[in-house]
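Is this the right way to post structure tokens for a design question? Let me know if I should format differently. Anyway, here goes:
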């Protein structure tokens, strides 16, 4: 067939006798002109532009300014492209009906399509390089196109072409579009004045784009990039080269920062407050405030959602049309009539009957639907994140203004505040994510039912009824799930508490051979937890089952009803369209239960928030006004200045500093200069009307030291807080000398530390001054403690850092108060946790020297009366009122009684002092710190146990291997996890899954066979088989969902059991070198992931993968040609998932790691409120909170943008699959039933492809937990088996208590140096032996060797004739007793602590308590022996705890007792008791004492002096003391 522009079957085609414009063909040719013109002009510019573009663009983001009408232009262009596609299709369809090719029908349209595409690319390039003059070319193009199209339209009108003809409609729409584009172009000229005007307008890009730190470009890119997340490509691909960190994701754009949103929400909330101001019982509505602030984006998202839902129905309609059309064409293939060219117009109906047109339409509808859906998700998520930021800022602001009485009197606990931050704000955020569903779903369901009714009549209602009736069951299951999860949480908290205790006291448990008793108690809690996990799993699997079985049941009900109620037979077009509709209907119903549940939760959360926001605030006293210049509110008055100040790195502190200097510089001569603070007639209370402090009249002299003394609980601390304005003033007034009240340095009674370095804790936001810092740390004697820390004063301390002892914490807080450059210092009992040397040093160096030199006013609350002579002014308090006020001399003369009372107290304190001088508490604290520290250094490397990540990432040759490891799925770990549930369950799961999917495919296949048969052959046997298959499918759905959950449970059970036993039997060295938190993490976070998160992920992954595979298999069976098209799609899919998984993993880690600091910041603020307010540091803390919130939000935002990136891409791939499947089956297919089946399956693929990738990515992250647990499971255990059988050991061994140590060599691990070298000693039965030596001389190692806690690699210890290396460990350890240096008690009863094995009678226990001098104390407790011991024995003093440990050793009647520095942490009195007991109660037992102070072993029968793992001296103490040069003698002299 020859090709000619106007076709060669018509002679009149080239005839222009009636006038040029009368010729249709000529008009079409005229339409080519503008398109060709545009291409000629723009191509050279584009090529030159792309070459030199880099030089023009002076900005790092290739996103530049948007010209006016930017979005409208993109929308119009996309519409134009769509209309061009219709025009091309219409031309080609018309052309197929002609006798010869008529190019003029579709060629101009194709050129138009190319030109429109070029126009938008050209525009984009002009915009990014900001060169508007070039827009003239486009302006001319729109005018020409508009003119030529109008000519064509006029021509059609003259010819009398009616409205029903498609070509007329298309031309009409085109004219309108070109006109609008022309208008947009004119508008750009009008606004930017780039041509025809003298002064073009200069424009700068948005502020965010000038800031190089902003990397989140979604708000700034063009529509196409917005819809496809194209700008994310660089980030996601770069994740392959190096992991994404916080620097890579940059800062939040200004509009999304917490501060911006806070101001919005705050304004809306204040408005609500004004409305209800005069109605006392109404509270301002947060809902309305949220709607005011964030309503618009939610409406936008809902619009997108409606559009997507409506486009979703295009799928079933197109399937029905395609199958119907295919059936018709295959029936009447023979009689197609070729048309005459003069009658070449198509009506819309004919056009839409063309199957290929429907296939393309389906493709476009899918692309649009998915784009709108993802846009809707993105908008809600962004709004949700904005709302969360605003709420967090609002809560934080409220916390800073909470009245102290609220916190201390328990109206608002810290736990509640933490819940508000961690749970309630997230609930509201999630509700926002899901709320468009609330109004989109009903519409979707109603539409679906109407369409079904149109297809199938009444029987459709039966199916819909099945779905609707089963929906409430879904809701019921969802509520049950939430309950089960809660009870699981309670049990796991209890289990963690027990595990924590075991790990803290592991040394004691091993030495007493009690590990199995405690292990059993954890296992018991774990069993309860597993039972509630079982209910959780059951409901989860039911929910999955409902989701899979409802559509099958509905389809069965519908089709069987249809078959029996209608005379008509079911057609394939009806069958597959209705199947597809049922699939659409199930999703909203399944989600609805979740959404309703979240809505209920959100309502509860808002109630809690409301209660919190209207709770009492602290009174705004007159002097607090100094702060008003830096509150957030001022940002609104002159936004320009302040928001900038807040956005930039420099916080408001600097404005604050200048304010501070101003306020200091102006002396007021009128003031009475010697009084800093004066309280007149003060009555103060803690939030009730009863005054805690009454009738307070005091004055505090400037620049002097005032001491406040009095008994415990007489209101000394309250007085300080009242002066600071933390208490409620009932009447009276606090007067501050104006110069002083800006900020006060304050050290609270209970030390409060930030999660920050030691240095940051001390300087606390002031400028760093080296000399001052040094002076302060010396005055508080912090230097030795700092030297012990691994990174000196750059070590993190606080909740998440290294735990310091009470004394160390208190000294840091005092140092903070001294360092601050304030006129007034308040110290609340700074000596309470310090020993005598330290408090003296602090008094001399810190207070008398450092503070007095600076002439600072100091108020000191103390119990140490020996410091009274130093005070310039004394305030004595009693029961909430001031007893006396004056100097010590005044009191001596006026109130002799009080003075005498003080004197006797002072004497008593002095006697305690002498006792105290013996125990040096500080060295002890330092010792425990050193103990806690030394493991950390060796373990700093262990933090990252993923051995794979350890490769150095700097060298290039290693680079590729690292990256390969980053992209590899951890299949080995997956296999270990799957098999830990047992091979039988694994096999059952795989088998039932495969069977279920085969049956589901069989159902659809049978439907295809049955519907496409001729009417005569249809029988009831088809219906029967269909019903049987559906029944089997429903049963299999239940079985598979149960087996997966069952397998997950078994795996979780086994993994935890193995982990617990492995850890508890591990060598003691493991616990010394592994931080406790690391081990606990395995039991908390990782176990939780294995318990609850992996099973549903595995289920979802297998389901979506199998669905996709069965769909691809089914389409390929229907049309084998489809496989050819599958290859490029498969490759694309592989790369998408590969890149996404790596990026997603990094972003998820970032999101997790930025969440913790935020939560910690909230809780530490709530704990340190009084300190922050006293120091006037609110602004700095707000700033820090905003930074932390923004950091967490940007990580979360990027994570959700990455998810959108993936979903858009997989959805487009799915749409391509649908298109190829449709085209190949139409071209090569034979059977209309199979065609419908193929299309139905192709549509399901689009839904499941992204789930495959997301589940893969989730599984990869979750397998990290399994990997970490496995790394512990590979650890060596202690060797519990001995060479002897336990039955061979005599029942009462060791009877005598004779110990022979022969040539003993000991090391901690076989790769470490020996700690004891060839030690020989002999201890007679019943001897009392003392071992001494410096730290690290091997004393403790020797005591551990008796219990085989260390590796004895040479020599032996023989006790009563038996070599201990041959004994089973349990037997050996259960027959010896030891008292450790740190007393350890477990939570439970006293009885449980003395005898956890429950072997002894009560009399024996009382006897032990009597020996330990505890009997009277225990008798006085409620419950006696069954009295409660709290965690770690916190409810007893350290001395009492040590005595309990002594009683514990006595209860176990063994003839050998080892005391390892047992007296190190107790006072003299307790120590004397201990010594006496050892001499009397243990007369007939062998006692080995490891001495920390030599005088405790002067009475021993034998003394062993050790040095560096060798025995230097071994003799009676008398002999050793008589030798002048003996080491023992020198020790004793040093200790005197």
């Amino acid at each position: 067939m020859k090709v000619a522009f106007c076709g060669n079957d018509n002679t009149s085609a080239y005839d222009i006798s009636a006038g040029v414009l009368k010729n249709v063909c000529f008009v079409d040719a005229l339409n080519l002109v503008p398109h060709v013109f545009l291409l000629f002009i723009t191509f050279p510019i584009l090529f030159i532009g792309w070459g030199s573009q880099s030089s023009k663009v002076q900005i790092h983001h290739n996103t530049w300014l948007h010209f006016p009408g930017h979005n409208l232009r993109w929308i119009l262009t996309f519409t134009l492209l769509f209309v061009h596609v219709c025009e091309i299709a219409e031309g080609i369809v018309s052309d197929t009906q002609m006798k010869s090719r008529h190019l003029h029908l579709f060629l101009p349209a194709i050129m138009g399509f190319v030109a429109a595409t070029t126009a938008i690319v050209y525009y984009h390039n002009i915009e990014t390089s900001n060169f508007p003059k070039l827009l003239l070319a486009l302006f001319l193009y729109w005018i020409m196109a508009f003119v030529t199209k109008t000519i064509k339209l006029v021509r059609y009108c003259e010819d009398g072409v009616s409205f029903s003809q498609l070509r007329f409609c298309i031309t009409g729409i085109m004219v309108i579009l070109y006109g609008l584009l022309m208008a947009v172009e004119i508008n750009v000229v009008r606004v930017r004045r780039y041509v025809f005007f003298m002064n073009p307008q200069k424009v700068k890009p948005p502020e965010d784009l000038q800031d190089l730190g902003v990397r989140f470009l979604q708000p700034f890119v063009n529509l196409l990039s917005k819809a496809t997340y194209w700008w994310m490509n660089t980030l996601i691909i770069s994740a392959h080269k190096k992991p994404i960190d916080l620097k890579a994701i940059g800062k939040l754009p200004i509009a999304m920062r917490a501060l911006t949103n806070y101001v919005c929400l705050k304004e809306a909330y204040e408005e609500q407050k004004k409305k209800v101001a005069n109605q006392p019982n109404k509270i301002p509505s947060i809902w309305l405030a949220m709607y005011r602030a964030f309503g618009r984006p939610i409406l936008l998202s809902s619009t997108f959602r409606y559009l997507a839902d409506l486009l979703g129905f295009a799928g079933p309609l197109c399937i029905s049309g395609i199958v119907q059309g295919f059936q018709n064409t295959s029936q009447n293939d023979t009689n197609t009539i070729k048309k005459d060219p003069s009658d070449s117009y198509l009506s819309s109906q004919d056009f839409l009957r063309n199957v290929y047109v429907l296939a393309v339409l389906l493709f476009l509808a899918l692309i649009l639907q998915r784009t709108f859906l993802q846009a809707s998700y993105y908008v809600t998520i962004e709004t949700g994140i904005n709302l969360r930021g605003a709420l967090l800022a609002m809560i934080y602001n409220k916390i800073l203004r909470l009245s102290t009485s609220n916190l201390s009197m328990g109206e608002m606990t810290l736990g509640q505040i933490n819940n508000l931050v961690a749970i309630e704000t997230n609930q509201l955020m999630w509700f926002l994510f899901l709320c468009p569903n609330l109004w989109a779903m009903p519409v979707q369901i109603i539409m679906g039912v109407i369409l079904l009714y149109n297809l199938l009549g009444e029987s459709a209602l039966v199916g819909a009824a099945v779905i609707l009736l089963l929906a409430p069951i879904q809701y019921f299951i969802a509520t049950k799930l939430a309950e089960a999860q809660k009870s699981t949480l309670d049990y796991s908290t209890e289990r963690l508490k027990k595990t924590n205790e075991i790990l803290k006291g592991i040394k004691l448990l091993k030495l007493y051979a009690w590990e199995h008793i405690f292990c059993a108690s954890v296992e018991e809690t774990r069993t309860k937890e597993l039972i509630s996990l079982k209910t959780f799993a059951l409901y989860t699997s039911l929910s999955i089952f409902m989701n899979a079985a409802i559509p099958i049941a509905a389809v069965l009900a519908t089709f069987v009803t249809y078959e029996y109620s209608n005379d008509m037979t079911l057609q394939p077009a009806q069958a597959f369209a209705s199947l597809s509709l049922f699939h659409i209907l199930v999703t909203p119903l399944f989600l609805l239960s979740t959404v309703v549940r979240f809505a209920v939760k959100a309502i509860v959360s808002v109630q809690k928030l409301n209660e919190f926001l209207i709770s009492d605030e602290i009174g705004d006293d007159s002097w607090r006004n100094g702060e008003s210049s830096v509150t957030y509110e001022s940002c609104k008055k002159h936004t320009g200045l302040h928001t900038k100040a807040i956005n930039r790195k420099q916080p408001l502190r600097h404005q604050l500093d200048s304010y501070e200097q101003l306020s200091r510089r102006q002396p007021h001569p009128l003031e009475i200069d010697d009084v800093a603070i004066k309280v007149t007639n003060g009555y103060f209370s803690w939030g009730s009307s009863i005054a805690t402090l009454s009738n307070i009249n005091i004055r505090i002299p400037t620049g002097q030291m005032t001491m406040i003394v009095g008994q415990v609980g007489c209101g000394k601390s309250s007085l300080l807080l009242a002066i600071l304005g933390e208490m409620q003033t009932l009447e009276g007034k606090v007067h501050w000398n104006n110069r002083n009240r800006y900020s006060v340095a304050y050290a609270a009674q209970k030390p409060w530390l930030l999660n920050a370095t030691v240095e940051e804790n001390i300087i606390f936001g002031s400028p760093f001054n080296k000399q001052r810092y040094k002076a302060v740390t010396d005055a508080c004697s912090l230097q030795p403690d700092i030297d012990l820390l691994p990174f000196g004063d750059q070590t993190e301390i606080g909740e998440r850092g290294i735990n310091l002892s009470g004394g160390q914490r208190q000294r840091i807080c005092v140092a903070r108060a001294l360092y601050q450059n304030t006129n007034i210092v308040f110290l609340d009992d700074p000596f309470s946790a310090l020993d005598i040397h330290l408090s003296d040093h602090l008094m001399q160096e810190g207070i008398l020297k450092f503070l007095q030199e600076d002439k600072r006013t100091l108020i000191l609350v103390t119990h140490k009366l020996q410091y009274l002579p130093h005070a310039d002014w004394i305030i004595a308090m009693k029961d909430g009122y001031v007893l006396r006020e004056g100097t010590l001399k005044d009191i001596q003369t006026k109130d002799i009684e009080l003075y005498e009372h003080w004197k006797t107290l002072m004497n008593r304190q002095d006697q305690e002092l002498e006792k105290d001088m013996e125990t040096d508490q500080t060295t002890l604290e330092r010792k425990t710190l050193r103990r806690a520290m030394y493991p950390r250094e060796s373990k700093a490397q262990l933090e990252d146990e993923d051995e794979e990540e350890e490769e150095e990432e700097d060298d290039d040759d290693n680079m590729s291997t690292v990256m390969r490891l980053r992209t590899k799925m951890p299949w080995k770990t997956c296999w270990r996890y799957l098999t830990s549930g047992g091979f039988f369950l694994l096999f059952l799961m795989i088998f039932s899954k495969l069977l279920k999917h085969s049956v589901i495919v069989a159902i659809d296949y049978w439907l295809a066979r049955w519907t496409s048969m001729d009417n005569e052959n249809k029988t009831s046997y088809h219906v029967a088989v269909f019903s049987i298959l559906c029944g089997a499918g429903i049963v299999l759905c239940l079985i598979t969902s149960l087996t997966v959950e069952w397998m997950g449970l078994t795996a979780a059970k086994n993994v935890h059991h193995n982990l617990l036993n492995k850890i508890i039997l591990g060598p003691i060295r493991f616990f010394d070198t592994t931080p406790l938190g690391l081990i606990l993490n395995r039991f908390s976070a990782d176990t939780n992931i294995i318990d609850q998160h992996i099973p549903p992920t595995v289920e979802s992954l297998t389901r979506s993968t199998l669905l996709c595979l069965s769909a691809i298999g089914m389409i390929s069976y229907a049309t084998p040609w489809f496989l050819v098209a599958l290859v490029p799609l498969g490759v694309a899919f592989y790369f998408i998932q590969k890149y996404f998984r790596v990026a997603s993993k990094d972003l998820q880690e970032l999101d997790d790691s930025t969440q913790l600091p935020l939560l910690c910041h909230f809780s530490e603020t709530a704990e340190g409120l009084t300190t922050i307010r006293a120091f006037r540091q609110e602004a700095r803390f707000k700033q820090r909170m905003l930074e932390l919130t923004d950091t967490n939000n940007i990580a979360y935002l990027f994570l959700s943008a990455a998810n959108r990136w993936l979903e858009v891409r997989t959805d487009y791939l799915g749409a391509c699959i649908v298109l190829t499947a449709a085209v190949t089956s139409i071209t090569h297919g034979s059977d209309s039933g199979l065609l419908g089946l193929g299309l139905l399956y192709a549509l399901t693929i689009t839904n499941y492809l992204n789930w495959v990738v997301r589940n893969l990515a989730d599984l990869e992250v979750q397998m990290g937990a399994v990997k970490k647990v496995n790394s512990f499971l590979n650890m060596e255990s202690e060797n519990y088996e001995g060479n002897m059988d336990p039955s061979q050991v005599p029942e009462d061994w060791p009877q005598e208590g004779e110990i022979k140590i022969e040539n003993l060599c000991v090391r901690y691990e076989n790769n470490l140096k020996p700690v004891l070298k060839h030690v020989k000693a002999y201890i007679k039965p019943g001897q009392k032996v003392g071992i001494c030596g410096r730290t690290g001389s091997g004393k403790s190692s020797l005591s551990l060797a008796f219990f085989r806690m260390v590796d004895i690699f040479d020599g032996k210890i023989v006790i009563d004739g038996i070599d201990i290396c041959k004994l089973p460990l349990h037997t050996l350890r259960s027959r010896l007793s030891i008292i450790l240096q740190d007393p350890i008690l477990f939570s439970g009863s006293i009885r449980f602590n003395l005898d956890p094995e429950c072997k002894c009678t009560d009399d024996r226990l009382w006897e032990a308590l009597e020996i330990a001098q505890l009997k009277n104390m225990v008798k006085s407790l409620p419950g006696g022996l069954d009295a409660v011991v709290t965690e770690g024995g916190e409810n007893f003093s350290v001395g009492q705890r040590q005595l309990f440990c002594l009683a514990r050793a006595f209860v176990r009647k063994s003839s050998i007792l080892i005391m390892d520095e047992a007296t190190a942490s107790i006072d003299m009195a307790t120590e004397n008791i201990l010594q006496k007991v050892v001499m009397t109660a243990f007369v007939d037992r062998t006692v080995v004492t490891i001495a920390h102070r030599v005088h405790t072993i002067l009475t021993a029968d034998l003394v062993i002096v050790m040095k560096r793992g060798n025995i230097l001296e071994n003799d009676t103490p008398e002999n050793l003391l008589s030798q002048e040069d003996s080491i023992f003698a020198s020790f004793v002299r040093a200790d005197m």
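Format looks fine. Someone answered above. Worth noting: Residues 515-565 form the longest helix (51 residues). Confidence is low (pLDDT under 50) at residues 53-60, 622-671, 934-957.
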